[in-house]
Amino acid sequence: MTAIEFNAKLLSLHENLRNFAYALTSNGEDANDLIQDTYLKAITYRDKFNPDTNLKAWAYTIMKNTFINNYRKNMRENAFVDTTDDLYFLNLKNRFDGAGPDSNMRTKEIRTSIENLEEEHRMPFVMHTQGYKYKEIAEKMNLSIGTVKSRIFFSRKKLMMALKDYQN
């Protein structure tokens, strides 16, 4: 296989490679960088490719390995190593131990909004936020699951309206 044929076949895989790269990275720019790295490695190591094998699988393998190597490299770069004699930085206490006045105020406001819900809506909502499943709530309150779901839904809507200042 000539270099021109190899390059043409490799470029014909662009859509497949783009989809695979996006599935790996979940980011368009990172996916484009990964495709570019894959092309570079495939062209650089073209002599290692066996023409009797599947070019698409070979390119996918290059892409997957490049992604894994880049991920590991990023993890190593972001790792913090404390080289002080007595591990000063690792044993350093956090300077901020409690919640600030801002978060206390927000918590109070959210709790007040929940308490202002009607009893029939508040109870299923609170139980749901405590981890109860719809079925468990329905059984404890002697309601149908559909009623429980709609009450929780309407509670969320009412809370979103009451707490609209906290939405992004």
CATH superfamily of the largest domain: RNA polymerase sigma factor, region 2, helix turn helix motif
Shape: elongated
CATH architecture of the largest domain: Orthogonal Bundle
- Biggest β-sheet strands, sense, barrel: none
Top CATH class of the largest domain: Mainly Alpha
Can you offer a commentary on this structure?
The chain starts with a helix and ends in a 6-residue tail after the last helix. The chain is mainly alpha-helical and 168 residues long. The longest helix is centred in the middle third of the chain and has 24 residues. Helix content is 70%, strand content 0%. It has two domains: 76 residues, Rna Polymerase Sigma Factor, Chain: A, CATH 1.10.1740.10; 66 residues, Arc Repressor Mutant, subunit A (Orthogonal Bundle). The mean pLDDT is 86. It is built from nine helices and no strands. Helix 7 crosses helix 9.
Please name the defining characteristics of this protein.
168 residues; mainly alpha; Arc Repressor Mutant, subunit A; 70% helix
Can you summarize this structure?
This protein is mainly alpha-helical and 168 residues long. It is built from 9 helices and no strands.
